[in-house]
């Protein structure tokens, strides 16, 4: 187990280094002079030179990367040009907003979709299975932004049950904050239910055909006992991996949902930074997003042996 964990952590470290290098190169491949793009066509030569010096653009690329990496290791991602605030502070502030949408949505989707996926597998080929698979397919086929707009039109505009758009922090007004979060969370929840349900069904069907399940049934155990005690743990492994991918992807910034509901999350911060040509903020957001994805999947890998001990043994 410890060898497995050390191997995974050892793989994550060079991955993060490669991610940092890729982000650094990607930002510098954007056409045009960053200083000129940020200051506009009316900027004079002195202002351009000062900004280039501030951004460290006059040094060679290897020097720029080493200086930037040193600052990153100290938690300094630079200063946002458009917001005049530290990039790290902006990212953490917006990430906290995104997490309030993503974490409840993924948790609720898992609690709903995993039992339904196992039920569909247990009732394979019957009406229950067909109805659940059809529902999951429908939820998957609907674009998230379109689903969000439908929820807004019906529950916010027509019925008036929830605010139309916006965001309120929990510290300001917890009740209002919950009302603003219901529709975005529901939008993500419905979409992810389809993904998780189908994966759970597929992995459970595979497990149900294994010899040890047949042996458990031959011992006279009830179907409920077979499903919960024997099939669940093995079948949840692939779903657990999928949850890591979903969580990492959503935490990286649900820009579409945040745009539809005008929520000041991480995804919207990145979009705004791109339009504002805020290079330090773009660079910081991309690095943070990629790092979150790597770390979430590292966490998933470290816990995977709980569901499949053969992984650690190998």
From TrEMBL:
GO biological process: one example: transmembrane transport
CC per GO annotation: plasma membrane
Domain ABC transmembrane type-1, first and last residues per copy: 95-304
UniProt topology in membrane: Multi-pass membrane protein
Keywords: Cell membrane, Membrane, Transmembrane, Transmembrane helix, Transport
Primary residence: membrane
Keyword Transport attributed: yes
Parts of the chain that traverse the membrane: 12-30, 101-122, 129-157, 177-197, 239-261, 281-304
Subcellular location(s) of the protein: Cell membrane
Sequence similarity: Belongs to the binding-protein-dependent transport system permease family.
The name this protein goes by in its record: ABC transporter permease
Organism: Comamonas koreensis
């Amino acid at each position: 187990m410890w060898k497995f964990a050390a191997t995974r952590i050892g793989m994550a470290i060079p991955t993060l280094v490669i991610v940092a290098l890729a982000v650094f190169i990607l930002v510098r491949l954007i056409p045009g002079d960053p200083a000129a793009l940020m200051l506009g066509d009316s900027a004079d030569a002195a202002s351009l030179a000062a900004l280039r010096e501030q951004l460290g653009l006059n040094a060679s690329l290897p020097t720029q990367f080493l200086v930037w990496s040193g600052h990153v290791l100290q938690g300094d991602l630079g200063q946002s040009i458009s917001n005049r605030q530290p990039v790290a502070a902006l990212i953490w502030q917006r990430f906290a907003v995104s997490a309030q949408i993503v974490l409840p949505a993924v948790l609720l989707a898992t609690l709903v979709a995993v039992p339904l996926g196992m039920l569909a597998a247990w009732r394979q080929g019957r009406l229950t299975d067909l109805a659940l698979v059809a529902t999951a397919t429908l939820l998957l086929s609907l674009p998230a932004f379109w689903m969000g707009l439908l929820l807004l039109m019906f529950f916010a505009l027509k019925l008036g049950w929830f605010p139309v758009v916006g965001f309120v922090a929990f510290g300001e007004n917890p009740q209002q904050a919950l009302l603003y979060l219901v529709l975005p969370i529901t939008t993500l929840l419905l979409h992810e239910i389809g993904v998780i349900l189908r994966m759970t069904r597929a992995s459970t069907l595979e497990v149900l055909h294994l010899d040890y399940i047949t042996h458990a049934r031959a011992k006279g155990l009830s179907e409920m006992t077979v499903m919960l005690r024997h099939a669940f743990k093995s079948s949840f492994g692939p779903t657990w991996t999928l949850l890591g991918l979903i969580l990492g992807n959503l935490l990286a910034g649900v820009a579409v949902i945040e745009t539809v509901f005008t929520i000041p999350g991480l995804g919207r911060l990145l979009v705004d930074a791109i339009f504002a040509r805020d290079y330090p903020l773009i660079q910081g957001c991309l690095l943070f997003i990629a790092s979150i994805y790597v770390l979430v999947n590292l966490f998933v890998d470290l816990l995977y042996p709980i569901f499949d001990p053969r992984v650690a043994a190998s």
